[in-house]
Amino acid sequence: MNPNGITLLGSLIRRKNVDSADDARREQASQQLAKILTLLDLIAIGIGSTIGAGVYILIGTVARDHSGPALTVSFLIAGIAAALSAFCYAELACRCPSAGSAYHYTYICVGEGVAWLIGWSLILEYTISASAVARGVSPNLALFFGGEEGLPNFLARHTIPGLGIVVDPCAAILIFIVTALLCIGIRESVLAQTIVTSVNICAMLFVIIAGGYLCFRTGWVGYNLSSGYFPFGTNGMLAGSAVVFFSYIGFDTITSTTEEVKNPKRDVPLGIGISLSVCCALYMLISIVILGLVPYYSMDLDTPISSAFADYGMDWAVYIVTMGALTALCATLMGSILPQPRILMAMARDGLLPSFFSEINKKTHVPVMSTIATGIFAATLAFCMDVSQLAGMVSVGTLLAFTTVAISVLIIRYVPPTEIALPSSHSESVGSGSDDFLGIHLTSSNYPPENYVSGSPLLMDEQKECVQDKQNQQRKQKVATLSIFFICLGALVLASAASVENLPSLASFTLYFVGGVVLVCSLIILVCIDQDESKLSFGQTGGFTCPFVPFLPAACILINTYLLLNLGTGAWTRVSVWLAAGVLVYVFYGHSHSSLSKASRASAAAVDVHCPLLADQP
């Protein structure tokens, strides 16, 4: 136990306040991020971060192996599933409008331990994503030079003799360029992302318009199939949805910039919704057109779109498609590097990482040190390491974040944090003992003699009723907490039953039955429990609220758990090594340096009564 009486286990569940008093001090010291982003900026960030070059390849693979002509439906279902997480992110971004995204929300709602693991996972996710995207640029760029042999020597890939390591200077140079752009300022980097995203969208519109024209001329030959619209059945269509779901990852980048948005309560939910809708519409329209040009079983797995146009004598279209893929890679690269410095900054603000990560340049209002560290780390990986085998680790971090965000919404609605972290210098001024009622000692010192009749306070009956109401509220919150836990447990059991192959029928039925009963019963209990009144005043009020609670977050938890279990043992093994390293960092540094390590806890009501000016302090 440390000097403040906080054990390591206790530190895992301590939660920070929505608004920190350090915010005001940072603003006075010009340490705030610049609030300059508008709705159009957020839409550009969301679309650019979401639509990567994968869609130019993914269509052929998923259509041939899973969905067939029903690929459009697969994209629609995946878009709806992604929207479930988007709703949860939108509410939390409005209530907790600060940098850090899922890490920040988890720290407020779940606790420091889980928040650390989410932040640590997101660091890995964004780094590997940026490295993988950067290494995909040189093959596309080589097309404009007549092949990889035509690339300038300083951009071409080289193999180190004796080691067999293929280095990619082009990837490292591109990451350094993006890093420098991000250090200049958020306005300049968003402008660049808007330009490359616009070029990508123009290329996709060309595919849709030109391809649609060819389809109407040829009679949509790709759909004239004896096997029907669902050649692989509904299971194949759903399997395709699980694959293309990852094409929608990227909208969460918007929430990492919440602190830099002029009007986050209005623009962040709209930015997430519009960007996700645009991406879904583009995906569906492209899949309709390409599958109308070429039967799904004849599609080229490597270049499905370019090959489809080449079959109709439009070989020159490959340059437009490649330009779209190239700009998509650049936009995704910016979207991968942009949020990581802000997560590092948020973790450093909370004391979990060294303080230099939280330093903000006074001129550019950008976390320069975090951005440079991110760029060096990502460029090193991209230069000397083939990160394609590590791609599954990206999905683990994203899905873990999606799951904890959904759980956080349930916590806010039913068991919102009611304690406030106070500096140790103020802890003595607030009562927190077991003999307190809402932080006020019920002794004669609280009531002058004129308020007594026959030795009892005049308001004792009302006080007893309030005490009973508080006890009932605590019992209700305990039931709600258990229900949320069993929702997660039921989702895990159901997802396990659906994921395990070659499971005996009896065991499969038992898992489905037990998981379904636990999940449904827990949802029924939450529906019968009124949502906590504290949710109305938790965090910043007046913004977007997630609809259909608790059903929507529960569906989100179930879908993300299923996808997590299907990522494969290889991805989980590699992620476990990274998470184990994160645990060591937390134990030997984050635990003792946390800004909450010297804070005391008190109920919000006690702070309001005894020291109302401290209600917003950490």
From TrEMBL:
One of its GO terms (cellular component) is membrane. InterPro entries: AA/rel_permease1, CAT_C. It holds the Pfam family AA_permease_2. One of its GO terms (molecular function) is amino acid transmembrane transporter activity. Keywords: Membrane, Transmembrane, Transmembrane helix. The keyword Transmembrane helix applies. Its main location: membrane. It comes from the Eukaryota. The chain crosses the membrane at residues 36-59, 71-90, 102-123, 160-183, 195-216, 228-251, 272-296, 316-338, 366-384, 390-412, 479-500, 506-529, 541-565, 571-589. It is found in: Membrane. Belongs to the amino acid-polyamine-organocation (APC) superfamily. Cationic amino acid transporter (CAT) (TC 2.A.3.3) family. This is Cationic amino acid transporter C-terminal domain-containing protein.
